[in-house]
Design a protein that fits this description.
This protein has 345 residues and is α/β, with parallel strands linked by helices. The protein folds into 2 domains: 83 residues, Arc Repressor Mutant, subunit A, CATH 1.10.10.10; 230 residues, 3-Layer(aba) Sandwich (D-Maltodextrin-Binding Protein, domain 2). It has 12 helices and 13 strands. A 6-stranded mixed sheet has the order 4-3-5-12-6-13, with helices on both faces. Strands 9-8-10-7-11 form a 5-stranded mixed sheet, sandwiched between helices. The longest helix is centred in the N-terminal third of the chain and has 31 residues. The radius of gyration is 28 Å and the shape is elongated. 29% of the residues are buried.
Length: 345
């Protein structure tokens, strides 16, 4: 009698333990990736959701692995699922194998992009608007296709992690991927900004700001920006707890309020240079130097893939700052001391 085909998903055939010429078969990377996902998730159903496949498919893949290796990989009597001793051994070996396999894919994609001269560079807004044009001009002779993104540090960091960017120039960034490195490019100190004629005398200590600004509203960067968070830490250190009234994502509108005499602000030389149309209406006062009185700029990339290009960008950035940006800034802002912006050798 003829059998009716089952409508359920067919059970995958066991993985061959021997190759076509009798040698040991290569491990199935997809199966090992599924096994790793189950270990990380603690359940087959959750792993299935993360992988975008059915729970039944995950269960069958684990069963095939157990059949091929002749060992039980999970203790199914506990919740969440825990790998057995054999499972832990496989997890350790699979982790290194999968990391190497992923690295091959990443390096091949990067090599193809480099071969075709494509570069995707992300920069925070203040850098893109000031150093960016000269850097793009300098890079135009080394790459045929250059794409430049600008934005806030958190967004650029996520684009770098997602491989939507090849390199990024950001400020304070926690490294979420051990393959991504960061190189310090330069540092800049905070600058207190007042309407022309409203600046107090020189500041000798950070806490002097509290005294001279008690009756003047503070105009801030928003807390969703890294610069806003960094300045808030400095304000707390200086003992300043001004009411929250005016907050901006961008420097231009913030300085427009300061120029109109509606309050004071803290920003940086690069941000001031980005919005230099307001400089004639402002007075600048460098804040006393502390561990929290400035911010650092880093070049971030996957070093194994982009080291030569990162070297070029770091060298060109420092040259642009030293020979173009800094001389122009000092001409328009002579009250800023030399150590307000320091280039890393």
């Amino acid at each position: 009698m003829r059998k009716t085909p089952s409508s359920s998903t067919p059970t995958p055939a066991p993985l061959a333990l021997r190759g076509p010429r009798g040698e040991a078969a290569l491990p199935d990377l997809r199966a090992l990736e599924t096994f790793e996902a189950v270990c990380a998730a603690g359940s087959m159903s959750l792993a299935a959701q993360r992988l975008g496949i059915t729970q039944s498919a995950v269960s069958q893949i684990i069963q095939v692995l157990e059949a091929n290796y002749g060992a039980t990989l999970f203790d199914r009597d506990v919740r969440p699922a825990r790998p057995t001793r054999a499972g832990n051994l496989l997890l350790e070996m699979a982790g290194g194998l999968l990391t190497s396999a992923r690295l091959i894919s990443e390096q091949m994609r990067a090599s193809v992009r480099q071969e075709h001269g494509q570069l995707r560079l992300g920069c925070v807004d203040s850098f893109a608007a000031t150093v960016g044009p000269a850097l793009v001009r300098a890079l135009s002779g080394t790459t045929r296709q250059l794409q430049l993104w600008s934005g806030l540090t958190p967004g650029l960091n996520q684009q770098l992690l997602a491989r939507d960017l090849d390199l990024a120039i950001c400020t304070e960034v926690p490294l979420e991927d051990s393959r991504i490195t960061q190189r310090l490019l330069f540092s800049e100190r905070w600058v207190a900004v007042f309407a022309r004629g409203a600046a107090p005398g020189p500041l000798t200590q950070a806490r002097d700001l509290k005294t001279v600004t008690e009756n003047l509203p503070l105009i801030r960067y928003t807390q969703r920006s890294v610069i806003g968070q960094q300045i808030e830490r400095f304000l707390r250190h200086a003992g300043i707890s001004a009411p929250r009234r005016f907050e901006f994502d961008a420097t231009d509108p913030m300085l427009s309020l300061v120029a109109a005499g509606l309050g004071w602000a803290i920003t940086t030389p690069l941000c001031l240079w980005q919005s230099r149309a307001w400089l004639d209406d402002l007075e600048l006062l460098p804040v006393p130097e502390t561990n929290l009185s400035g911010r650092d700029f880093y070049l971030m990339c996957r070093e194994t893939e982009w080291a030569p290009m990162a070297n070029d960008i770091a060298r060109l950035t420092r040259a642009v700052l030293e020979h173009e940006t800094l001389p122009a800034m000092r001409l328009r802002m002579p009250s800023l001391p030399d150590n307000t912006l320091v280039i890393t050798p």
